[in-house]
Amino acid sequence: MKKIFLLFILLTVIIMPVFAKQNKTDTDNKEQTVLYMNLNWWQNYKDDFLIEHLKKLYESNYDLKNADLKVKENEKLVKIQFASELPSLSTGSFIGRDFRSSMQQFGDMRIESYAQNNFQFPLTMSYEIDIWGKNRLKTKLNKERLEISKQAQRAAYIALSSDFAAEYFNLIKADKLLNLQNELISIQKEIIDKVTNLYDTGICHIEDVLDEQKFLTVLNEERNNLEEKREVLINNIKVYLADNNDVIERKSYEDTILLQNLPLEISSEIIENRPDYIQSEANIRQSGYDVRIARKELLPSFTIFGQIGLNAYSLSTLFNRPSQMASAGVLPVFDFFAGGRKKAFLQFKKYQYEEALNNYHKNVLNDIKEVNLGLFNYKTSLRNYDESQERLKTQDKLHKIILDKKEIGTASELTELYSLESDIIVKKEEVSNKINCLISSISLYKSVGGKNLYELNENL
């Protein structure tokens, strides 16, 4: 019985660190999730509505929930594999009775008929001696899979928050463009009335009236498209937030701000922060472990096993010394012939390792391309926005000239209306370019792996 007691103490010492490690992992997951949110970056846009929506996105979005669950699943797989490095202890108690019809034979001796009880209470322990480190490698392999799932989780947070923010600012743009479009339609109706009056007095041709009416239908179509686009954006945002009832609160276009002093040059080393880059590195390590494990499968394995317990044929003698049973041994296993299966499996894993290397080099090139493209798009958006502002200033000057001419009688009200239409059209271009700058800054943030762009600026 002392042996059994010592065995339980040994098992407790082995298992307790496993539970302690599990609690620490759960805490680390919560801290990592907070980092993935990166609300410090999104606060640069000075939009409280955006921050509140992002918080709800992190709480409610089903894709993010599934990404979190995938990490937890892989954590359990690591623990399952780690258990194979430890001894296993089990019991298989047996209580039975052989009746009179039973027959037992030992060589030439034959017992025709007998009846007896049998009580067995054994503890069985087994442990595969990890001579070659195969089980340790399998645990390391599962840890790399866990790392891949964590980076997939991080990528989901970066992608979904970036895509959501882009949809949010596009919705603000749609609101403003729709307002400007309504103003444009209102002015065009006034133009039609005035051109019609001119036609009635014989000053212009019917073709002029028809052209203005045709342009009005074009403006109405543009408004219909804007209304549809705004409705689609609202529904998309509701899907992101997993809520179909809430009103999507948002800032007005006039209150949106452009981020200032973002870096216009970024080192290619930034790709090392991207989730897909880290995943490709982990995938190489995982494939390397696969090759090493497959190679060690060619070697023999050794399992130590033992059993201790009680075996009696009556309850009255169950705890007597003769009823105590114990056995121990070593079980070596080696495949002398397996049809070439293990060698083929080893070669298969080597091919997968080469494939992982190729994917790594391909990802490096694609990552650099995406960062450069994001940076180029941001620079282009800034230049286009500056050009649209200059164009708007020029149009304002032209409109003032028209007003001055109207005051001295050299320009008509119709000319002023045409000038107002031109103002609105240029204003629409300026609105699109400003929102494009915001969205391109979001794309740049996404391309560098969700890192605060102002921190990059500080390091330059």
Question: What descriptive keywords fit this protein?
Answer:
67% helix; Outer membrane efflux proteins (OEP); disordered N terminus; alpha+beta; 5-stranded antiparallel sheet; 460 residues
Describe the overall structure.
This protein has 3 domains: 1-27, no CATH class; 38-85 and 131-299 and 341-459, Outer membrane efflux proteins (OEP) (Up-down Bundle); 90-129 and 306-333, Outer membrane efflux proteins (OEP) (Single Sheet). A hairpin with a 2-residue loop joins strand 2 (94-106) and strand 3. Strands 1, 2, 3, 4 and 5 form a 5-stranded antiparallel beta sheet that branches. By secondary structure, the protein is an alpha+beta fold. The model is unreliable at 1-23 (pLDDT under 50). Helix 5 (134-200) packs antiparallel against helix 7 (275-296). It contains 10 helices and 5 strands. The chain has helices spanning 2-37, 39-42, 48-60, 62-83, 134-200, 206-241, 275-296, 341-408, 413-447, 453-459; strands at residues 88-91, 94-106, 109-129, 301-312, 324-333. It is elongated, with a radius of gyration of 38 Å.
Strand residue content: 5-15%
Query: What is the number of E strands?
Result: 5
CATH homologous superfamily identity of the largest domain:
Outer membrane efflux proteins (OEP)
Radius of gyration: 38 Å
Distance between the termini: 70 Å
The rough form would be described as: elongated
Spans where pLDDT lies below 50 across 5 or more residues? 1-23
Say what the CATH topology of the largest domain is.
Outer membrane efflux proteins (OEP)
Structural class: alpha+beta
